[in-house]
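Re-running Sec-independent protein translocase protein TatC to confirm reproducibility after the cluster update. Everything else is unchanged from the original entry.
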Amino acid sequence: MSHLVELRSRLLKAAGSVLVVFLVLFAYPGASAIYDVLAQPMLASLPQGTRMIATGVITPFMVPVKVTMMAAFIVSLPIVLYQAWAFVAPGLYRHEKRLALPLILSSTLLFILGMAFCYFFVFRTVFHFIATFAPQSITPAPDIEAYLSFVMTMFLAFGITFEVPVAVVLLVKTGLVEVDKLRQARGYVVVGAFVIAAIVTPPDVVSQFMLAVPLCLLYEVGLICARMIKPRAKNASDGGELTERQ
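Result of re-run:
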């Protein structure tokens, strides 16, 4: 019961932090202003004077609220991760604590970097390519709900893609896979990267390359980092591990 009470306390603190940040962002700068920032890459590619449309009755209210909630979760992500870390840390060994904390920090930073890369570089390039490819007889007017769904999918895809170095380092550190085996699997990774990019991105060559190429490069970065670490010894006795608990 004590563990359940602790879990409940940590979940309430994490949810409370997200709610507080949401209320602050909803008050200032406001849900509409936050959505305008998110929609800027699309608006920049549309013809002068063209705006996005809302086909639902409550869509003009709900979509900015969802965007504000997403922004609140990202802003409060350090607090949420700290609550998760504080819950599991007492049950970890010393070597697990030394591994877990850097992984949490690096994975959070890389996920945010993936979203930033998608927003500042991928969106502008893809939207400009689509706008120039569209026939002159068509006036694009994207729906804001469809745009939000597209943005969330792309953010998630690029955020997970930027986690590849962490996954590679974790596999090597835990001794599950050797660096030489991962190096030999480069060809499969390249093919898999383009297959994944073809599934999760829009059906255009530009966005597929912009997801597959960083995935391959980040895999190489993970291999470089994995060469610098020492895999965990597999012959450690359980009695020796028990002495490492805090």
